[in-house]
Design goal:
Protein name: DUF4398 domain-containing protein
Helix content: over 70%
Order of helices and strands: HHH
Structural class: mainly alpha
Shape: elongated
Number of strands: 0
Number of helices: 3
Organism: Koribacter versatilis (strain Ellin345)
Largest sheet: none
Protein backbone atom coordinates (compact mmCIF):
# COMPACT_ATOMS: atom_id res chain seq x y z
CA UNK A 1 0.00 0.00 0.00
CA UNK A 2 2.86 2.39 0.80
CA UNK A 3 4.34 1.84 -2.66
CA UNK A 4 0.97 2.60 -4.29
CA UNK A 5 0.74 5.82 -2.30
CA UNK A 6 4.22 6.83 -3.44
CA UNK A 7 3.32 6.07 -7.05
CA UNK A 8 0.16 8.14 -6.70
CA UNK A 9 2.02 11.10 -5.25
CA UNK A 10 4.63 10.95 -8.02
CA UNK A 11 1.86 10.72 -10.64
CA UNK A 12 0.08 13.75 -9.23
CA UNK A 13 3.34 15.70 -9.12
CA UNK A 14 4.11 14.84 -12.74
CA UNK A 15 0.59 15.79 -13.82
CA UNK A 16 0.75 19.13 -12.03
CA UNK A 17 4.21 19.81 -13.39
CA UNK A 18 2.98 19.12 -16.90
CA UNK A 19 -0.04 21.36 -16.54
CA UNK A 20 2.04 24.18 -15.10
CA UNK A 21 4.29 24.40 -18.17
CA UNK A 22 2.01 26.26 -20.54
CA UNK A 23 -0.40 23.40 -21.17
CA UNK A 24 -3.51 25.39 -20.29
CA UNK A 25 -5.77 26.41 -23.14
CA UNK A 26 -6.60 30.12 -23.25
CA UNK A 27 -10.13 30.61 -21.94
CA UNK A 28 -10.33 33.83 -23.96
CA UNK A 29 -9.53 32.18 -27.29
CA UNK A 30 -11.11 28.77 -26.71
CA UNK A 31 -13.64 28.87 -23.86
CA UNK A 32 -15.09 25.44 -24.64
CA UNK A 33 -11.69 23.75 -24.81
CA UNK A 34 -10.59 25.49 -21.61
CA UNK A 35 -13.76 24.26 -19.90
CA UNK A 36 -13.05 20.74 -21.16
CA UNK A 37 -9.56 20.91 -19.65
CA UNK A 38 -11.05 22.03 -16.34
CA UNK A 39 -13.41 19.05 -16.39
CA UNK A 40 -10.49 16.71 -17.05
CA UNK A 41 -8.64 18.21 -14.07
CA UNK A 42 -11.70 17.77 -11.84
CA UNK A 43 -12.18 14.18 -13.00
CA UNK A 44 -8.56 13.41 -12.21
CA UNK A 45 -8.92 14.91 -8.73
CA UNK A 46 -12.03 12.79 -8.10
CA UNK A 47 -10.19 9.66 -9.23
CA UNK A 48 -7.37 10.46 -6.81
CA UNK A 49 -9.90 10.89 -4.01
CA UNK A 50 -11.53 7.58 -4.95
CA UNK A 51 -8.16 5.85 -4.92
CA UNK A 52 -7.37 7.19 -1.46
CA UNK A 53 -10.81 6.22 -0.16
CA UNK A 54 -10.29 2.69 -1.46
CA UNK A 55 -6.69 2.42 -0.27
CA UNK A 56 -5.52 2.35 -3.90
CA UNK A 57 -7.10 -1.11 -4.33
CA UNK A 58 -8.95 -0.59 -7.61
CA UNK A 59 -7.20 -3.14 -9.77
CA UNK A 60 -5.24 -0.53 -11.68
CA UNK A 61 -8.39 0.79 -13.35
CA UNK A 62 -8.33 4.20 -11.68
CA UNK A 63 -4.66 4.60 -12.53
CA UNK A 64 -5.42 3.71 -16.16
CA UNK A 65 -8.29 6.20 -16.19
CA UNK A 66 -5.94 8.90 -14.90
CA UNK A 67 -3.45 8.04 -17.63
CA UNK A 68 -6.18 8.40 -20.25
CA UNK A 69 -7.26 11.71 -18.73
CA UNK A 70 -3.68 12.95 -19.01
CA UNK A 71 -3.74 12.01 -22.69
CA UNK A 72 -7.10 13.77 -23.14
CA UNK A 73 -5.70 16.89 -21.48
CA UNK A 74 -2.86 16.98 -23.99
CA UNK A 75 -5.17 16.34 -26.93
CA UNK A 76 -7.35 19.26 -25.87
CA UNK A 77 -4.25 21.47 -25.91
CA UNK A 78 -3.34 20.16 -29.37
CA UNK A 79 -6.88 20.92 -30.57
CA UNK A 80 -6.43 24.53 -29.47
CA UNK A 81 -3.03 24.77 -31.15
CA UNK A 82 -4.51 23.41 -34.38
CA UNK A 83 -7.44 25.84 -34.20
CA UNK A 84 -4.99 28.70 -33.69
CA UNK A 85 -3.32 27.89 -37.01
CA UNK A 86 -6.48 28.07 -39.10
Amino acid sequence: MKKNLQIGVVGIALFLAGTAVGQKVSANRHPNLAAAQNHVEMARQKLSAAQQANEFDMGGHAAKAKQLLDEAYGEIKEAAVTANHK
